Amino acid sequence: MAPSSKRALPSKEATLFRELLTLYETRQLKKGVKTADQILKKFPEHGGEDPSRSAMARDLPTTHFRNPVYERPVPSAIRQARRRHWLVKKGMRFDLTSHICWHVFGLIQKDEKNYEEALKSYTQALRFDKENINILRDSAQLQTQLRIYDGLVETRHTLLRLRPSLRQHWIALAVAHHLNGNLSSAKKILEHYEYSLKNIPDYDVEHSETLLYHVRILEDLGEYAEGLSLLDINSKSRAIVDRTAIMEFRARLLSKLRDTDASNAWRALIDHNSDCYEYYRGYLASKDVDLDNPSDESRAQALAILQEFASQLPKAATPRRMALSFATGEQFSDLIQQYLRSGLTKGVPSLFADIKGLYTEPQKYKAIQEAAEAILQENTPPEGQCSHGEPTTYLWTLCFLAQHYSYVPRATPSQPLPSPDFERALALLSTAIAHTPTLPELYTLRARVLKRAGDPLGAAAAMNEARLLDGQDRFLNTKCAKYHLRAGMIDEAIQFFGMFTKKDAANPGADLEEMQSTLYLIEAGDAEYRLGKLHLALKRYVAVDKIFHEMEDDQYDFHGYSLRKFNLNIYLNLLAWEDRLRSHPAYVTAALQASRIFVKVHDDPSLITAASSSVRLSDAEKKARKKAKKAASKAHDDKKPATASTADDTVENTPAKDDDPDGVKLLGAADGLDRAAKLLQPLESLAASNIDAWLVIYDVAVRRKKYLQAIKALKHAQSLDSEHAELHTRLVDFKKRASAFPQVPPAPIGPLVTTSLATLLPEEVSLETYNSLYLQRHSGCAPAVLAAARVLHSLGSAIDEVDATLFTTLADDAQLDIVTASKILDFLKAIKSSRVEEYRLTCVSRFPLSTVFMTQSELSQKQKQTAEGTTALVEAEKLEVVP
Amino acid sequence: MNIRLARMDDLPGMQATNLQNLPENYLMKFWIYHAATWPQISFVAEDHKGRIVGYVLAKIDDESADKGEVHGHVNSISVLRSYRRLGLAKKLMLLSQEAMVDVYKASFVSLHVRKSNKAAIGLYRDSLGFEVVSVEQKYYGDGEDALNMRLTMKR
Which superkingdom is the protein from (chain A) (predicted)? Predict the structure, then answer.
């Protein structure tokens, strides 16, 4: 058969084939396979069907994948991947020039999230069928996903040329220009589009959104007057139907035009939603109040305006709260008293969280304390009497003051605040608990105070007491589980989480992971990390990365969907958000922690063997425990009904088994540092102001012998905080490594390293001197002293010299916190100092409430007690539930 | 607390709040789908640091069995326990309801609530004027019934 006839199908089969494609698109897969088989029976070597049949076969188990674009993927797809690729390749052998083969191959690659390769296949397909609308449309989606915007403009252009009658194609081209940074072309296309529009139905949300998009483009172009007139015309004619959007655009545009009408526009928004800060800020700015650096005059003006609002809008909290930021002196004292009184009478649990932002000013700190103490006094019942003032006001004032006295001031404010007084806070809470033992908030506060005082075990126990007072509340449950993770009680934590996770999940952690709980994964990872279980920690952190991959994949369908819906502004916001997705604190933490683990393992590979033997051990333990439990439960009761049987779960639906459930393989991965570099890569732009990120980037780069990257990271860190303790150790580390190069790296790297090193730290000074100068500058700062001590040790100083340096952190005038103290203790242990015990005992008396400095046996004892307490309480709870 | 329209970058915070508060949880794509389809009717409350402390996630049904009437539906609403008693849930609901009518001409708003959730039922019925339309047996995963509540909107 000649190649051309090989491709061409008779009309009956050609119709069937078109049907087949529709069936695939609409996911009517069973039908699709049947149709494909029908064609194949007659034309077994037709290039097109084989691959499309294979695409169907792959998707079959995912039937019911109807319109909702948020359906979950089905893991069994993976198992069919091999067969699918085989089928598609077989099809291609028959006909390499078939656009259908390439199209289907691209579809499959796209479904596997392999966007780069998919786009290549689509480009091939287009070579053989240049004007295929489906292929062009899919290519455009891939180009958007891959942010290939110049290519996108071209594709959208072609689509518009082929089908200019489709409204969507005009909009899509405008958006493509916009994404490609060419706003004025986007504007021209929109103008042309609007001009040619006929018969717009009344009250059309799609048209309304398109017009709002047009206004946004004008705003972004700085053409405010044009934007405003477009907005006004179309809101008068009711072509734009979103009233809030109209008001917001109006207020913003008028402000940018410095129009006197701006304040009225903001005022209208405040009436619409009187708890939106942005509206008040807009209003104040329109009255020429400089909000960032207010002069005394603007302060007074702002205050007057806000108080006016407060009296007109009695239900709005925002103007009252904002006024507190502008008021000073006497006036502040008056206002804060009213504010606290109202909050404490209502029993607002978040009152302290709400006002603690004011603690940057010591006078305000003092005024708040005085006001709260006065309210407490008024409401305190006299000895032996119950009625005096409001009992709930009394209670909430005790809570408020407990939070106040346990407040830990931010590092070195210009005028320092008093240090936290944890004993006093706990005493206030004990009074409150004696007064009303059934309010969960009292226990959650107690837990928080204990946590700050360095007693994670006591904190976990208190959080559990709170949880028991309202077992149906998932918030308290989550807090309780989180606090148990912080206390290193992972098994107990999982048990708590399990009270609200799906019962058919493999385990509570798996369910939380599937539901994309970064809170759980980060906290669990940190807990494992603290316990030295690096493999498990790594497993959790990497799962966070996976969630962020999922979120990036999520946008794919919207490249088509949002344009069809004409929801353009929100779609562009979606893309902008996706571009910055990995600036999310959960990702940053996970990427840094995972990278730290890869670095640790690189420096000390014995950690890998330790991990795998610990897994083997705990597996044996688990088996033993399971056996014991089985025996116990058998003895206990047999009457329990069989838990919802999983028998009808077909094999298809069970997720692919994880062949590395404990992360040991991951921990030992040969390319660990490369993986770390990949995790860190997004942080260079998305966490550029985070010094920890640059320090870890350095750690990884220098070990991968990427010296220029390492230098870049050090320079960034230096520009953020040149005296940072962790930077100090890295600078020394880099100089040591550079001087130990067996040979200078070839140009240009070698000379660049040398010159950059000279800018990073002085050449003429020895590292010993450099370090002692650093120590002198920061002798009162414990983290810096620790850094200097680490450097001393790495330069080969005697242990007693290192010890002596570290012991200066115990001086009365040195600021030492629990975290740093425990790091120092760890370091003393690591260098086998003889003074470990001495340091530990001093910390015990310095931080009397803390359990961090207990010996291992004291700690296990206490942990056991907490666990027993927990179990006892949980058991008691079960008894209570049973009628 | 600052109350405003939900934005795309709020979605992780809304998802986290939901996961911390309620047993009915959703994958990120579900949240994106709602924000991208009905961008005007979901709202959030945030604290001074920009952390989400409460949200309402809503949608529009325009081809329902209810005589083809366009109506709004509240998918999920919650406020962190530590931010209660500020009236945030009510403020969020009111803004959402208003936008449903304003943009989509919704004729009523519907929602499901656990039969045992007295506090929420009180808010919907007493403060917002919802009425119980029907009881949906075993609506929730754990077998609890749901009250199907509805508020007719004036235009």
Answer: Eukaryota
Q: Do A350 and B87 touch (CB under 8 A)?
A: no
**Peptide bond just before A748 cis, omega within 30 deg:** yes
| Residue A546: partners with Cβ closer than 8 Å, 6 or more residues away | none
Which of B32, B51, B96 has the most A C-beta neighbours within 10 Å, making it the best mutation to test the interface with A?
Answer: B32
pLDDT tens digit string along A54-90?
554 444 333 333 333 333 333 344 445 656 666 666 6
What is the separation of C-alpha A197 from the centre of its chain, rounded to a whole number of angstroms? 43
Distance CA A275, CA A317 (A): 7
By C-alpha distance, the chain A residue nearest B104 is A205
Q: Is residue B125 in a domain?
A: no
Cα–Cα distance between B123 and A75 in angstroms, integer? 41
For residues A292-317, average pLDDT: 91
Phi, psi of B110 (to 5 degrees): -120, 160
H helices of chain B, in order, are 11-21, 28-37, 88-104, 118-122
**Alpha carbon A752 to chain centroid, angstroms:** 37
Put simply, the answer to whether A317 touches B86 (Cβ < 8 Å) is yes
How is residue A257 written in tokens?
Answer: 């035009």
Task: Identify which of B20, B39, B48 has the shortest CB distance to residue A570.
Answer: B39
How many CA atoms are closer than 13 Å to the CA of B95, on its beta-carbon side? 28
Q: Which of A69, A275, A478 sits opposite B2 (nearest CB)?
A: A275
- Within its chain, how far is the Cα of A645 from the centroid? 36
Q: How many domains does chain B have?
A: 1
**CA A463 to each of CA A120, A471, A705, A776, A825: distance values in angstroms, whole numbers, following the listed order:** 55, 12, 47, 43, 28
Task: Please give the full DSSP string across A709-735, using - where no structure is assigned.
Answer: HHHHHHHHHHHH-TT-HHHHHHHHHHH
Q: Would B70 be classed as within a structural domain?
A: yes
- The answer to whether residue B136 sits within a structural domain is no
Q: Within a domain: residue B21?
A: yes
- A446 vs A403: CA distance, rounded Å: 9
Strands B131-136 and B52-61: unpaired
Query: Angle at CA A465, nearest 5°, toward A464 and A467?
Result: 60
3-class state of residue B99 by DSSP = helix
Please report, for the domain that includes residue B53, its CATH number: 3.40.630.30
Give the confidence band of A45 by pLDDT, cuts at 50, 70, 90. low
By 3-state DSSP, what share of chain A in percent is helix, strand and coil, each rounded to 5? 70, 0, 30
**Domain coverage including residue B28:** 2-109
A–B CB contacts, 8 A cutoff, strictly below: 136
Of A275, A547, A567, which has the smallest distance from its Cβ to B1's Cβ?
Answer: A275
